[in-house]
Amino acid sequence: MLDQFARTSLQLGRENMQKLFAAAVAVFGVGGVGGYCVEALVRSGIGAIDLFDDDKICLTNLNRQIIATHSTVGRYKVDVTKERVLDINPGCKVGAFKMFYMPDTADTVDLSRYDYVVDAIDTVTGKIELIVRAKAAGVPVICAMGAANKLDAAAFVVTDIHKTEMDPLAKVMRKELRARGVKDVKVVYSKEAPLTPIEDDEISCRTGCVCPPGTARYCTIRRQIPASNAFVPAAAGLILAGEVIKDLIQNGGEGMVERE
Q: How far apart are CA 197 and CA 12, in angstroms?
C-alpha cells in the first residue's frame, strides 16, 4: 500500500525503510544547520527524533532557518520544530528539550538511548562534551563544523575531524579531542576559507539587538556577529542527514532503543 515514504522505499527498499522507522536520533541544535537536518531525517522516515536547543526564533533567523517565519518569531525553536515534524509525519516520536548542552547539563541526557547523535551546536565546549560522551556510550556521532561566514555551498566534504583544514572551529576541536584521546569523529566541514563579516552598525544586531525577550544568550555577547545566508547552512544540514541515513542503513537493524 502506498504511503508518504513510497518514493523513498523505491530507492532504499522495504528492509532498509524498516531500519529507519525503528531508529532513534538525537539532534543537538535546530538552527540553520540542525533545522534542515531534522527536516531531511523526518522526511526520510526516522521513527523517533529528540530535539535539544534552548534558543528562541529571532527575526534575524528568517534568512536561513527553515523553521523561522514571522509567525514563529519569539517561540522556542524546539517547540516549532516538533510541530513541523509531526505535521510531516504524525507517527514520528518527537521529544523537545529546552536545554543548552554543556558539561553542567550533560548528565541529564542519556545518549545510550539513541542510534545516532547529530551535533549541530556552535559552542566548542558543548561539542567536545557531546562527542566524548557519545563515544563513551558507543553511539555514532556526526558533527557540523563552521557554516557561518561561508558562501560556497559546494565546498562541504565529509571526513574525519583530524583531516580538516581551513576551519577555525575544527582547528580548536582537533586539539581538544586529541587531549581527550578521541581518535576519530565524522564531521561535515567546508574547505572554503571563512569570510570576514562587514562591520556596519546599521545592519548589525551588535547595536540594535532584536532577540526575543527571555533569550538565554544574546548575539551581542559574541566576539563577532557572524554572517550567513540561506544556502550554506542548509547544505551542511542536508549532508549531515544524508550521512545519518546512510550509516543507519549500512549499520542499523538492531532496532530502536527502548524509550519511555
A: 42
Q: Cβ(190)–Cβ(146) under 8 Å? A: yes
Q: For the segment 19-76, what is each residue's pLDDT rounded down to a tens digit?
A: 999 999 999 999 999 999 999 999 999 999 999 999 999 999 999 999 999 999 999 9
Domains assigned to the chain: 12-246 (3.40.50.720)
Q: Residue 254: left (phi > 0), alpha (psi -120 to 50), or beta?
A: alpha
Per DSSP, the chain holds a count of helices (H) and strands (E) of 7, 7
Q: Tell me how far apart the alpha carbons of residues 247 and 245 are, in angstroms, rounded to a whole number.
A: 6
Task: Please tell me what DSSP assigns to residue 108.
Answer: G
pTM above 0.70, yes or no: yes
User: All 3 cell numbers of residue 130?
Assistant: 557531546
55, 34 in Cβ contact below 8 A? no
pLDDT tens profile 169-192? 999 999 999 999 999 999 999 999
